[in-house]
Each structure stands twice: as structure tokens, then as C-alpha cells.
Write a structure and sequence with these properties.
Blueprint lengths: L5 H17 L2 H4 L2 H13 L2 H14 L3 H31 L5 H33 L8 H21 L8 H27 L13 H9 L20 H30 L11 H7 L4 H32 L6 H18 L2 H30 L2 H24 L5
Helix pairs in contact: 1-8, 3-10, 4-5, 4-10, 5-10, 5-14, 6-7, 6-12, 6-13, 6-14, 7-13, 8-10, 8-12, 11-12, 12-13, 14-15
């Protein structure tokens, strides 16, 4: 540990203390905290590691405003999901059978299967990049090979034993990831205060305003994850899920915006040209020696657990959507195989855009679920206004599905 500075020790201590608090049995026993942590961990996932180079290329010095816009869009979509938790779920579980409601909900499940499969490819591809980032084998070919081996392993383990045995990583990974993020924010704040720098002139890539907006639409994946609250009905009541999902979105939004504010002075140091998914490692190396290693640890833990979680989710949804005809043990290797094809066919930023479009399709269908729910449960002026609001959201998300672009 020779050569570590005071800041290095502060960051290591911060990460350790936050991890200790998050893993404290008393906190973990609180239903409200557990219901908050699940969507929070999903939202602050892979996107946190790649958002800095993405926003630098798309928005330049307006990165903070762009991040704020993405967070506002996520909150608006979250309102749709919360409405469905409180109002659509009782209808779907009851005796009322509305054809539009049933169809939109069924199609939502199918869209979410595809979204999960694509996100699995993204998670494990990012894991490969970060695992080899500070080794002699940090080239794209080796990263793809490592990601392929991991995906194949997930598929094989899922087929032979099921993936439930790997879920023990979830709590440890979530706590590690959040502890690393707190340490990162402390390190960036220390750096900015010490240098007295809070702004930087960052030149974005060459693209017109419409193209930049389409690229922002392609970043929806970075704030995805709050919809997990929609599928925790067997563990938590509807009102608790809706409230904790809202607080998870508020907290994650504050973390994302705070991170972009604090990292902005470093964005000017990004090399020109195509953004690099591991650029955050090089940026944080300017702040403290331990930060890149903390980020790699957080990335390895969170990416693998998120990949397993989404593989489980996709397998369960495939089994449910097929009426039990597709066994989960067969779904896991199929999901892994599709993810392998995706990582070899697309670069990381193209996968982000494709996943964003897939999640936008799911959210669009959820907006239609909300529309049909209003038709059943509301009346008069209240119904017309709510229907208009949800149709407008569905149309906006359709635009993302059709026109979102990867950052080049």
C-alpha cells in the first residue's frame, strides 16, 4: 500500500464504511430499504460507468443539462409505471377482462424479454472491458473473448443447475457498487475543490441538434431499472413499491447529475474521436490512485450480478409468456447465445442504443396499459386528461423506438 496519499486512504475508508452500513443486518431487514435498493441498484448500473464519455461526445459543455433531461424523462416514465402498480395490477389480477389492457400487458412482457436479453449482452460486454482495462490484454478482441466465455458459462450453469445459486452475489454486489460510487463522488469533490475548477470547455462531436437529441434517446438504458418494482408484487405491497421506486429514482437522479457536475472539469481531458467505455478509469486515475481499482471492483461485481439477474428475469418471462411451454433451463442458454451474437455484431454504444430502443418499446406498451386502465377506472374530464397524457408518453417513446441513435 506504499505510495498511497491521504485522499487514497480517505476513499478506501469511505468505501469501507458505506459498504459496512449497507450490509448491516438491521438495515437489510427493513422492507422499505430492500424495496428501494432493488430498483436503485438497477438504475445505477452500467450506465454510470459509460455516461461521462457519452455525454461529452453528445452534449459537450452542456453535459449536466443533458443528464438532467434524461433524468426528467425517466421520472415521467416512472410515473407511468407507478400508476400501473397502483391501478393496472388490481385489474389484471381481478375479474375484469379488457382486451386492450390484456394485450398491452402481454406485449409488454415480450418486449421486456428482448430488452433483458440485449441488456445482458451490454452488462457482460462492459464487464469484459473493465476486467482487462489495466492489463496487457485490454484490446477489443480479448475483451470480446472474455465476455463470450462468461456468457457461455452463464448459459451452461443456467441449463445444468439453474441460476438461483448465483443470486448470493446480488446483495454483496449492490453494496459494493454503491460504496464505490460514494467514494468516487467524494474523490471528485475533493479534486474539484482542491483545484478550484468546476467547469470545463468540452467540445462535442460533429452532429446537428436533431442527431444529438436522437443520441440522447439512445441513452435511455443508463437510467433504466426502475421498472423492476413492477415485478416485486410477491414480496412487497403496491403502495410500498410505488413509493420506494419514486425515491430510488430521485436518489439515482441526484447521483447521476451530481456525478456529471463533479466530473465535468475532467471531461476536457477526454481524447477526441470515438468515445471509450472505459474512459472513466483514465479520468479517475487523475484524481486518486485507488479510484480506478475501486471502479473495476465495482464494475466486475455489479455487471456480473446484473447480467445474471436479467438472465433470470428474461428466462422467467419467457416461461410465463409461452404459457409454460418454454422451460427456463432451455431459455438460459438461448439468451446467452443471442447475447454472444450481439456483442460480436455491435460495439458497446450500438448495444446501448438497441437496448434503449427495446426498453422504450416496453415503456411505450406500459403507457398503453395505463391508457386502457384509465378507460376502465376513470370518468369525465379526469379520464380524458389522463388518457391524453399517457398517449402523449406512448407517442414520445415510439419516437425513441424508431429514431434513437448510438453515439459515434
Amino acid at each position: 500500500m506504499a505510495g498511497l496519499t491521504l485522499l487514497d486512504w480517505v476513499l478506501l475508508t469511505t468505501a469501507g464504511l458505506v459498504g459496512f452500513v449497507l450490509l448491516h443486518p438491521h438495515l437489510m431487514r427493513q422492507p422499505a430499504w430492500r424495496a428501494t435498493v432493488t430498483p436503485l441498484a438497477s438504475i445505477i448500473g452500467s450506465g454510470f460507468l459509460v455516461i461521462a464519455p457519452l455525454l461529452a461526445d453528445v452534449a459537450g459543455s452542456r453535459a449536466v443539462a443533458a443528464m438532467g433531461l434524461i433524468v426528467l424523462v425517466a421520472l415521467a416514465i416512472g410515473h407511468v409505471i407507478r400508476f400501473n402498480i397502483r391501478h393496472a395490477e388490481p385489474l389484471l389480477a381481478g375479474e375484469i377482462r379488457h382486451p386492450g389492457l390484456a394485450l398491452s400487458e402481454r406485449l409488454s412482457g415480450i418486449a421486456l424479454i428482448f430488452a433483458y436479453v440485449i441488456s445482458v449482452a451490454f452488462y457482460i460486454r462492459i464487464l469484459g472491458s473493465f476486467a482487462l482495462a489495466r492489463t496487457p490484454w485490454n484490446g477489443e478482441l480479448h475483451e470480446l473473448m472474455l465476455a463470450t466465455v462468461i456468457l457461455a458459462g452463464i448459459g451452461i450453469v443456467g441449463f445444468v443447475h439453474g441460476l438461483k445459486g448465483l443470486e448470493f452475489l446480488e446483495v454483496l454486489a449492490v453494496s459494493t457498487k454503491l460504496a464505490v460510487i460514494v467514494a468516487l463522488l467524494v474523490g471528485l469533490l475533493w479534486h474539484d475543490v482542491a483545484r478550484g475548477e468546476w467547469f470545463a470547455t468540452v467540445t462535442p462531436g460533429q452532429a446537428d441538434l436533431l442527431t444529438r437529441l436522437r443520441m440522447l434517446g439512445g441513452m435511455l438504458l443508463v437510467v433504466q431499472g426502475f421498472e423492476t418494482s413492477r415485478y416485486l408484487g410477491s414480496e412487497y405491497p403496491a403502495d410500498l413499491r410505488a413509493r420506494t421506486m419514486f425515491w430510488a429514482q430521485i436518489l439515482s437522479g441526484a447521483i447521476y447529475i451530481g456525478f456529471v457536475v463533479l466530473v465535468e472539469p475532467l471531461l476536457a481531458d477526454l481524447p477526441p474521436g470515438r468515445p471509450d467505455e472505459t474512459a472513466i478509469i483514465r479520468l479517475t486515475a487523475e484524481v486518486a490512485r485507488v479510484l480506478p481499482w475501486l471502479l473495476i471492483l465495482g464494475a466486475l461485481m455489479s455487471q456480473f450480478s446484473a447480467g445474471v439477474a436479467d438472465t433470470l428475469g428474461a428466462g422467467g418471462l419467457a416461461h410465463e409468456a409461452s404459457g409454460g411451454r418454454v422451460q427456463e433451463k432451455w431459455a438460459y442458454p438461448a439468451i446467452a447465445a443471442v447475447a454472444i451474437v450481439l456483442i460480436w455484431s455491435l460495439n458497446v454504444f450500438e448495444v446501448i442504443a438497441v437496448a434503449s430502443r427495446a426498453f422504450a418499446a416496453y415503456y411505450m406498451l406500459q403507457a398503453l396499459t395505463a391508457f386502457f386502465t384509465v378507460s376502465i377506472t376513470h370518468c369525465g374530464h379526469s379520464r380524458r386528461w389522463a388518457q391524453l397524457r399517457f398517449l402523449a408518453m406512448a407517442f414520445f417513446l415510439l419516437l425513441i423506438v424508431l429514431f434513437a441513435l448510438p453515439v459515434e
